[in-house]
Amino acid sequence: MSFWWEPTLAPGAATTPDDLAAAGLTTRFDDQLEAEEWLTEGFAELADLGVTSVTLIEDGTTVYSMGLDTA
Questions:
Q1: What's the whole-model pTM score?
Q2: Predicted pLDDT of residue 69
């Protein structure tokens, strides 16, 4: 199994695919817990890049989506 996060960007965000890759959004995880731990550590950086929500994907199937509201 492979898990990964797919981002949704705020309208007008100037973030590039390279920015998202540098933040770790191209990382594949062996299990859901590992993916969630990574997000816990990095969500503030993603929000700073203009990511408004992320969707956790497992082998092409949506597990869940969540917003990155930092307010």
A1: 0.89
A2: 79
Average pLDDT over residues 30-42: 96
CA torsion through residues 56, 44, 50, 68, sign: positive
* Structure confidence at residue 1 (pLDDT): 83
